[in-house]
Design a protein that fits this description.
Blueprint lengths: L2 E2 L5 E2 L1 H9 L12 E2 L2 H13 L7 E5 L5 H7 L4 E6 L2 H10 L5 E5 L13 E5 L5 H14 L4 E7 H8 L9 H7 L2 E9 L4 E2 L6 E8 L7 H15 L6 H4 L5 H4 L6 H14 L1 H7 L8 H16 L3
Parallel strand pairs: 4-5, 4-7, 5-6, 7-8
Antiparallel strand pairs: 1-2, 3-10, 8-11, 9-11
Helix pairs in contact: 8-13, 11-13
Length: about 300
């Protein structure tokens, strides 16, 4: 894959990054590691095309850096809003990439408001902000659904996003994302694909929106709260973790901590399925198990005493 610059000349991403680095220093605090390998850029764009990326798309790119991925997205005919916190990178992009479909924003993607008409989010995420960016993405998607998301992240983090190898990679991150998306590994990316080279390998993770309409909003919040609470005590069996009421859950259901304990005792005495679930450790439960556990507890709480 070759990428077109403002003058129409096509060149490989390694040349673009080399030109940037010849006049600019990278900032480690911003997680600036730039792709020089064409293949991950191609894979990100091709995956996004399977989820509708094209001429009518409105794409958010977070941290474009020298713009290697930006150019590839623009080549599809899509409109791109690129948010870049580095003023040096913004200056470089502004001088090199003049395109009618590109809106370049110098700012913090976590702090500024995103456009309200996005169809896709494609990014090589700085490792240090992956978790809060995902939270913002999920919140955005809840209010304004997108068609597809493709993110390059640290490999271990990506494995947890996709819950790639259960039970090892199961956790609150993957459970939360599963409520909105089917997450999959599009490609594993070697650290040698970047300049400067990071200390870890990466993965491209695709997030395909998958509505779980059978889960209510209250259940969503409860599942997240229960999973976060239990995974915070990962070495314990769920039964031991639930001896104390999860902070975000008992308040959501409007019961006291003593009422919570009473409900747990009732369920454990009456339901074999409940007993079986709480004898497991949190990573042994798949997402559907978390739904079942939540509904068992909620049903008992809402039942007249």
């Amino acid at each position: 894959m070759t990428l077109s610059n403002a003058g129409g000349k096509s060149e490989p991403p390694s040349k673009i990054v080399q030109r940037y680095l010849s006049t600019n220093k990278t900032d480690k605090s911003l997680g600036q590691n730039f792709l020089i390998d064409e293949t991950p850029i191609h894979k990100s764009v091709e995956f996004s095309k399977t989820l509708g990326l094209g001429k009518l798309s409105n794409v958010l790119e977070i941290g474009p850096g020298p713009g290697t991925l930006t150019r590839a997205i623009l080549n599809t005919g899509a409109n791109v809003t690129a948010i870049e916190i580095s003023s040096d990178a913004c200056d470089f992009l502004a001088s090199e990439l003049s395109h009618p479909n590109l809106s370049l924003v110098n700012g913090d993607a976590l702090a500024i408001q995103w456009p309200d008409n996005l169809t896709h989010i494609i990014a090589n995420l700085p490792y240090g902000i992956s978790s809060p960016i995902l939270s913002k993405i999920q919140g955005y998607h809840q209010n304004s659904p997108v068609l597809g998301i493709c993110l390059l992240v640290q490999r271990e983090f990506g494995n947890r996003m996709a819950m790639k190898i259960p039970p090892k990679d199961r956790g609150p991150l993957g459970i939360s994302l599963w409520l909105d998306f089917d997450c999959s590994t599009v490609m594993e990316v070697s650290r040698s694909s970047f300049r400067p080279q990071p200390e870890v390998d990466s993965s491209i993770i695709g997030l395909k929106p998958t509505p779980r309409e059978y889960i209510t909003e209250k259940e969503r919040l409860s599942i997240k709260g229960l999973a976060s609470w239990c995974f915070g005590r990962r070495r314990r069996k769920i039964r031991n973790s639930l001896k104390s009421a999860p902070n975000k859950v008992h308040g959501l259901w409007g019961i006291s901590r003593s009422e919570w304990n009473d409900r747990m005792a009732i369920l454990e005495g009456e339901s074999r399925d409940f007993r079986d679930l709480i004898q497991k450790r949190p990573e042994e439960l798949d997402p559907e198990n978390w739904i079942l556990l939540t509904r068992m507890i909620a049903h008992d709480i809402e039942r007249p005493v």
